[in-house]
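Support request, please re-run this one:
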Amino acid sequence: MSEVLGLKHAHEAWTTLEASFSNRSKTRELQLKDELQLMQRGSKSVAEFSRLFKGLCDQLAAIGRPIDDLDKVHWFLRALGPDYKIFSTTMLSQSPLPSFADIILKGINRGKPKPPSASVTKSNLSPVYCQLCDKEVHLAKCCWTFLNLKKKQSANLVEAFTASSTPASTNSAWYPDSGATSHTTNDPEGVDIPTVYSGNERVMVANGQSLSISHTDSVSTLVPNSPLLLSNVLVVPGIIKKLISISQLTEDTNCWVIFFYYGFTIQDRVTKVMLGVGRCENGLYVLQQHHHALASIVSSNKLRVSAHLLHARLGHPSFCTIDSLTKSCFISYSDKLIGLDSSLCVGCNLGKTHRLPFSLNNTHCDLPFDRLHYDL
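Re-run finished. Output below.
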């Protein structure tokens, strides 16, 4: 009891003893858990190994740290070794999972030799017992329990493979994707002149799957009556949706892609021609392939008018408003706005002027109140 020597009060002594023994208990707990997880049956029998395993579990329970029954089952089956691999797989696949006591009992019974039958004794042959169901005449690999489990696992594998190998969608819509580095499609007939791809590169999708490339070429008929061109399009048979790479599109065609909450527009940066429009559908932006780019016709040079005519047609707004609409690419005009603010139209003079302007007066006064101005 060297821990309490020199202490004056009982409270100090009990506190010191509690801290000392709690630390020891924690160390002992970790030591026992490590021994449980590292135990291996080796050459021991299942009965002997189960007694050693259960002894460690009882020691943990005695110090107030019992092991969960699920952990006992998992660690015990894992420690049985490769000879009991089929037995462990069968036990873990059962629902509900057997208790630790049932696992020990079944493991011990599995290791016991079966008494020979009368017919086998006469022929001096050892009987054959299944390791799973303890019945005669067949082995574990032919047992209906194992075959049923194997069939169920095979069905799950087939279902998972089918889900990952979903056939390409017949949807012809194109989806702009800022995360894609290349244009991709699953339809080789959708490109102009499909060329067989002979490289070693593959397409990596979001779920980590690597997809092969079959052909490459460009798509020039994406939108009717529009010069929109997708170059270097990859034909990937395993892709689900057709993707337009935003980075590749803006680099190849020198265009803007402007997104709104209801859709998006693709516009040439130099000519301001509208190359394509799209809509937002179920949270995804979809390119409209059947519109005739009416906005591009409105923005063409043939229909451009003067700023004065637009000012009159739009209800005489200020020329700052017209300039703002032009910068937003909604309208365009043929001349410039330089000097137009000082030359307002007659309608603006009549409708927006509240009083007549004073005439120019160059009279100079030397003293205050030499001249008075009044307005009647």
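Confidence is low (pLDDT under 50) at residues 117-124, 164-169, 292-303. The first helix runs from residue 10 to 38.
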